[in-house]
């Protein structure tokens, strides 16, 4: 898992069937100082994360599919926690 | 998942079994502001509805093949959805 900050959202009407109703967040990846590294990733939100929050993102397919409860879902990146403090 | 722009369609003459009929797109990866980021690659189209000029989000690695009907196929990038809007907090989107 990595730390990331929520910096945006994406909306989509036409998508793979398993993506129906999923909330997509744009996350900036963070370095050890908590600053954006310049990299980003689009992840599915499972915890209700919002703008500016630091979150924990899982970037592994098998775990992601277990959390979302959908076998064979084409997703790797899932927000699995909101950070209180580090 | 990451953002990309469809810059062309790829029409193969011969494909590996299981990939017959799968639409292939040429996709330019983008950063979150819509600027080009890296070299284009060939993507299977998991939506089967994307076309040139559209902004899409794509997935790489093993998960890419899971967008297709036959999931045990040699595919490493796939379009998962077509982007309607990108909202960036505190700045104008692309």
Question: What would you say this structure looks like, in words?
Answer:
- The complex is a heterodimer of chains A (86) and B (94).
- Chain A is built from one helix and five strands, in the order E-E-E-E-H-E.
- Chain A is mostly beta strands.
- Chain A has one domain: EutN/Ccml (OB fold (Dihydrolipoamide Acetyltransferase, E2P)), CATH 2.40.50.
- Chain A has a five-stranded mixed β-barrel with strand order 1-2-3-5-4.
- The longest helix of chain A is centred in the last third of the chain and has 8 residues, at 61-68.
- Chain A is globular and about 40 Å long.
- The two termini of chain A are 14 Å apart.
- In chain A, 38% of the residues are buried.
- With 94 residues, chain B is mostly beta strands.
- Chain B has a single domain, classed as OB fold (Dihydrolipoamide Acetyltransferase, E2P) (Beta Barrel), CATH 2.40.50.
- In chain B, 4% of the residues lie in helices and 39% in strands.
- Chain B is built from one helix and six strands; from the N terminus they run E-E-E-E-H-E-E.
- Chain B has one helix at 62-65; strands spanning 2-10, 24-30, 41-45, 55-60, 77-82, 85-88.
- Chain B has a five-stranded mixed β-barrel with strand order 1-2-3-5-4.
- Chain B is elongated and about 45 Å long.
- The mean pLDDT of chain B is 92.
- The interface between A and B is medium-sized, with 28 and 31 residues.
- Strand 1 (2-11) of chain A pairs antiparallel with strand 6 of chain B.
Q: Overall pLDDT of chain B, averaged?
A: 92
Structural class of chain B: mainly beta
Using only CA atoms, what is the Rg of chain A?
Answer: 13 Å
Residue fraction in strands of chain A? over 45%
The portion of residues assigned to helices of chain B is under 10%
Return Rg of chain B in Å: 13 Å
Number of domains of chain A: 1
Largest sheet of chain A: 5 strands, mixed, barrel
Low-confidence stretches of chain B: none
Give the overall average pLDDT of chain A.
Answer: 94
CATH class of chain A: Mainly Beta
The share of residues in extended strands of chain B comes to: 35-45%
> Which structural class do you get from the secondary structure elements of chain A?
mainly beta
State the shape of chain B: elongated
**CATH homolog superfamily of chain A:** EutN/Ccml
Poorly predicted residue ranges of chain A: none
Secondary-structure element series of chain B: EEEEHEE
Oligomer: heterodimer
Task: List the secondary-structure elements of chain A in sequence, H or E.
Answer: EEEEHE
């Amino acid at each position: 898992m990595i730390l990331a900050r929520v910096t945006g959202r994406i909306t989509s009407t036409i998508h793979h069937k398993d993506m129906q109703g999923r909330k997509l967040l744009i996350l900036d990846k963070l370095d050890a100082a908590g600053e954006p590294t310049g990299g980003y990733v689009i992840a599915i939100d499972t915890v209700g994360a919002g703008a500016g929050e630091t979150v924990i993102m899982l970037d592994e397919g098998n775990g992601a599919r277990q959390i979302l409860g959908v076998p064979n879902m084409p997703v790797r990146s899932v927000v699995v926690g909101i950070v209180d403090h580090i | 998942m990451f953002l990309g722009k469809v810059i062309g369609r790829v029409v193969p003459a011969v494909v590996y079994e299981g990939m017959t009929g799968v639409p292939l797109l040429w996709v330019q990866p983008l950063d979150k502001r819509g600027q080009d980021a890296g070299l284009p690659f060939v993507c299977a189209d998991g939506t089967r509805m994307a076309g040139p000029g559209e902004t899409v989000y794509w997935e790489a690695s093993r998960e890419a093949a899971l967008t297709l009907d036959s999931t045990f196929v040699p595919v490493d990038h796939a379009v998962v959805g077509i982007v309607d809007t990108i909202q960036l907090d505190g700045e104008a989107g692309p």
